[in-house]
Amino acid sequence: MVEMTEYLLTRPHQLIPLTTFADRYGAAKSSISEDLAIIKEVFEEDGMGELLTLAGAAGGVKFIPRIGREQAEAFIGQLCKMLSEPDRILPGEYLYMSDLLGLPGLMNEAGKLFATVFGGREIDVVMTVETKGIPLAYAIGAQLNLPVVLVRRDHQVTEGSAVSINYVSGSHKSLHTMTLSRRALKEKSRVLIVDDFMKAGGTVQGMVDLLAEFNATVAGVGVLVESGAIDTEQRLLEEYVSLASLGAVDAKNKSVTVHPGNYFDWV
User: Fold this and answer.
1) Phi/psi at 139 (nearest 5 deg)?
2) Where is the Phosphoribosyltransferase domain (predicted)?
């Protein structure tokens, strides 16, 4: 039963026929069904997710990762506390986040939260722009059992032919370029866009514009931290999910204000 649980946890959103377990353990399907009923109960009681059972010849079981509200509140509270540490303040009142993005456990939990929101949507790939958003994108991709597509800042010869666009990002409205290999994304794909930090949303909007070149659809947008100092009128996006919202950064007094994002508006 322990091995069955591990098998399911490492294959989220994947339909697994009962015969897979029956052949694996040399057991009858009825015995496997009884074990799965116990695992399903544990998953739901512990707030780990759901174990869906599909009947019929083509049926089986599928694990859907989900996090309960209480667990989500605890995680977001921890994230806000970590982001509020005064020694994160950099010159120019920027915030250092690279160490958090480099924590696999933290990113894995964040991935579960985003999987809770987006798990019911039709999505083909997770997309992010290099480089800091990569750990978060792969964590979400793992929880949704989806491939990850990386948008480059500069075209690489090894990527083959690519589509490049210019976009405006940053408080100084700087012009940047992003590029995506034509082989990286199929036409008319449904894409979940992910980023580690969003201010006005210029980088995310750039990815949206890039997807239009592939006739692709934006299935959702998820950001780890958004800037709460941006007026709604300045925000380029209306629909997105954020886990934390960065408020005032006071370099003089060494203080950082961080609040929960809009995550709970979506669950």
Assistant:
1) -65, -40
2) 109-228
Where would I find the H helices in 120-191?
134-144
Nearest CA to 244 out of 74, 77, 68 is that of 77
The Cα 110–Cα 266 span in angstroms is 15
* Residue-range domain boundaries for the chain: 2-65, 69-265
Local structure of residue 46 (DSSP, 8 states): T
The dihedrals phi and psi of 255, each to the nearest 5 degrees, come to: -135, 145
Residue carrying structure tokens 């939260």: 113
Distance CA 97, CA 244 (A): 12
Summarised one tens digit per residue, pLDDT across range 78-130 is: 999 999 999 999 988 789 999 999 999 999 999 999 999 999 999 999 999 99
CA angle 188, 209, 125 (to 5 degrees): 45
β partners of residue 169? 174
pLDDT per position as a tens digit, 192-225: 999 999 998 999 999 999 999 999 999 999 999 9
Tally of CA atoms within 13 A in the half-sphere of 157 that contains its CB:
0
Residue partners of 45: CB distance under 8 A and separation at least 6: none
* Spatial CA neighbour of 16 closest among 38, 46, 36: 36
Dihedrals phi, psi of 39, to nearest 5 degrees: -60, -40
The Cα 69–Cα 64 span in angstroms is 16
Instruction: Reply yes or no on domain 69-265 having CATH 3.40.50.2020.
Output: yes
Extract the tokens encoding 127.
């997309």
Structure tokens that stand for 30 in this block: 């009825």
Fold adopted by 2-65: Arc Repressor Mutant, subunit A (1.10.10)
